[in-house]
């Protein structure tokens, strides 16, 4: 049996890609990914049209997809996150069919229960053997975890592995194994690993960011979850990492040993685990090169699939065992609904990723964000897009005060008793408007450019075009 | 009062604004580009016009790139630009 094929074009032919089909991609190469553009360019040259692209995330590097949309090569787009460049074009209405946004868990779940069908999956593999055993841990383009690609490999009709590092059979440490793979293509480069790094990997020095992080850490402490066995997820980005730093200091002082940290993993979380604050790292994607090195070397550092991470279709997922998650927001409304899909002008510039999955799963979901950013108040009457339902958000922490979801009466009492600046969310909104002025409501167009699905597949909100 | 010479004030940092002013004997030109134009254009314009009025300036060219500055910042940057441009304090 020979799976090894000479070119992307040949793989597309052999796998039987036809007009109207759905093809999928994963985003572990992040803003350094070459594979999505490579495949779409080849398909376009072959005259294939009317494709639906289901990519776990679309980054700015994927800007060429805009031309493929204009030329009718791509007529459908599904993803969990979309960067600002493609997002702006979508918000302007270049795609006739609304984009489908899912969460990381929702994408895995919808593939599992059959509501999201993939004809052909393309896996970017930093190393693979000729039968398609592959891993993200080794090679010049190593990206670490291949977490989101597992669903694609399991559920797509045909699976093509693209690698720039073909190794002798059998690959010693396989993530996705040959049983799922139809074809293997050797390409010059699957991406630029220097562009994997997400956000900043340094702790913020911005006093506002540090104040927010300090308050968030106090919320974690007084919530009662910070004890032996504590599990924790936080993102990349200066303020989220600062929360981790303050939590680490408290764990050190009170000799607390946590159980696991999870998520997109940064070097900071790796350091915390190595110092003994967490037993295990559950890693669905690596955010920096230190995390990539760790998943390769450290047996405590486990690769997990999107299903295990967050799928609501699974019998259980790791998010269900999570104590505390720290999340961001572009807008929060007075009912605690969070927007991470659009900016304040309504342009698409993000997506749920694991936001709504972890908020739903974690015992304590904390939103950290400055009360005002470039004059725009964080808290509004109604978010432009409901990305995460308010019922699943417990606390909003800003530099000027902490708002606790009224559903969490007990938690609110604990935080007040601890002397933290707990305020009504309406009061926080008022403080911001007293400083910045009341923002005029942004008028959106009438056309739906994206449907936002909740993790269970139900419609959570729609995003309209920007005028 | 009149703007006597070209002057600038402010920066292009987030939450600040950059102002350029030039003399003009005849008319007032006001160009404002703001990242929060949708939400706050009326109040930005009002802050600029009020500062001009305070200094009794009715002609000149004013170019503004706003990165989400608060009204108090807009007024302060305007005052600096006008003073640098030769407008005397009343």
Automatic annotation (TrEMBL), chain B:
Q: Which UniProt keywords apply?
A: Cytoplasm, Lyase, Phosphoprotein
Question: Does the record bear Methyltransferase in its keywords?
Answer: no
KW Cytoplasm (keyword) present: yes
Question: Which Gene Ontology molecular-function terms are recorded?
Answer: citrate (pro-3S)-lyase activity
Q: What Pfam families does the database record attribute to this sequence?
A: ACP
Q: Which EC class is this protein assigned?
A: lyase
Annotated compartments: Cytoplasm
Q: EC no.?
A: 4.1.3.6
What domain of life is recorded for the organism?
A: Bacteria
Quote the protein name from its UniProt record.
Citrate lyase acyl carrier protein
> From what organism does this protein derive?
Blautia hansenii
């Amino acid at each position: 049996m020979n799976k090894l094929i000479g070119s992307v074009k040949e793989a597309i032919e052999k796998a039987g890609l036809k007009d109207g089909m759905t093809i999928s991609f994963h985003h572990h190469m992040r803003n350094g990914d070459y594979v999505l553009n490579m495949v779409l360019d080849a398909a376009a040259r072959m005259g294939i049209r009317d494709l639906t692209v289901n990519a776990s995330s679309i980054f700015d590097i994927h800007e060429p997809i805009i031309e493929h949309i204009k030329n009718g090569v791509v007529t459908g787009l599904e993803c969990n996150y979309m960067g600002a460049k493609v997002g702006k074009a979508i918000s302007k209405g270049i795609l006739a069919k609304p984009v489908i946004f899912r969460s990381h868990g929702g994408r895995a779940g919808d593939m599992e229960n059959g509501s999201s069908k993939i004809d052909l999956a393309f896996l970017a593999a930093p190393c693979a053997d000729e039968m398609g055993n592959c891993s993200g841990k080794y090679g010049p383009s190593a990206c670490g975890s291949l977490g989101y690609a597992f669903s694609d490999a399991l559920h797509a009709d045909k699976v093509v592995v693209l690698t720039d590092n073909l190794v002798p059979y059998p690959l010693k440490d396989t993530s996705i194994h040959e049983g799922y793979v139809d074809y293997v293509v050797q390409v010059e480069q699957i991406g630029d690993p220097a562009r994997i790094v997400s956000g900043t990997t340094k702790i913020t020095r911005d006093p506002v960011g540090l104040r927010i992080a300090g308050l968030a850490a106090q919320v974690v402490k007084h919530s009662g979850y910070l004890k032996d066995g504590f599990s924790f997820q936080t993102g990349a980005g200066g303020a989220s990492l600062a929360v981790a730093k303050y939590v680490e200091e408290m764990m050190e002082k009170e000799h607390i040993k946590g159980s696991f940290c999870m998520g997109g993993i940064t070097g900071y979380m790796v350091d915390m685990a190595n110092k003994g604050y967490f037993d295990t790292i559950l890693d669905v994607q690596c955010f920096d090169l230190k995390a990539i090195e760790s998943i390769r070397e450290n047996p405590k550092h486990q690769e997990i699939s999107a299903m295990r991470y967050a799928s609501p279709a699974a019998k259980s997922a790791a998010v269900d065992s999570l104590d505390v998650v720290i999340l961001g927001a572009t807008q929060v409304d007075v009912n605690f609904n969070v927007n991470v899909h659009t900016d304040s002008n309504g342009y698409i510039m993000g997506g749920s990723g694991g936001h709504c999955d972890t908020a739903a799963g974690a015992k304590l979901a904390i939103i950290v964000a400055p009360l005002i950013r470039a004059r725009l108040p964080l808290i509004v009457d109604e978010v432009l897009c409901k990305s995460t339902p308010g019922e699943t958000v417990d606390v909003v922490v800003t530099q000027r005060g902490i708002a606790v979801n009224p559903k969490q009466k007990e938690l609110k009492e604990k935080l007040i008793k601890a002397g933290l600046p707990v305020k009504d969310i309406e009061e926080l909104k008022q403080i911001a408007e007293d400083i910045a002025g009341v923002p005029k409501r942004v008028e959106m167009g009438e056309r739906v450019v994206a449907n936002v699905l909740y993790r269970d597949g139900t419609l959570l909100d729609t995003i309209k075009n920007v005028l | 009062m009149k703007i006597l010479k070209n002057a600038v004030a402010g920066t292009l940092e987030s939450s600040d604004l950059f102002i350029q002013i030039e003399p003009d004997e005849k008319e007032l030109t006001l160009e404002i580009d703001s990242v929060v134009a949708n939400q706050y254009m009326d109040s930005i314009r009002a802050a600029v016009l009020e500062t001009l009025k305070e200094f009794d300036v009715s002609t000149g060219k004013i170019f503004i790139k706003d990165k989400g500055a608060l009204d108090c910042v807009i007024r302060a940057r305007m005052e600096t630009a006008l003073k640098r441009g030769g407008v005397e304090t009343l």
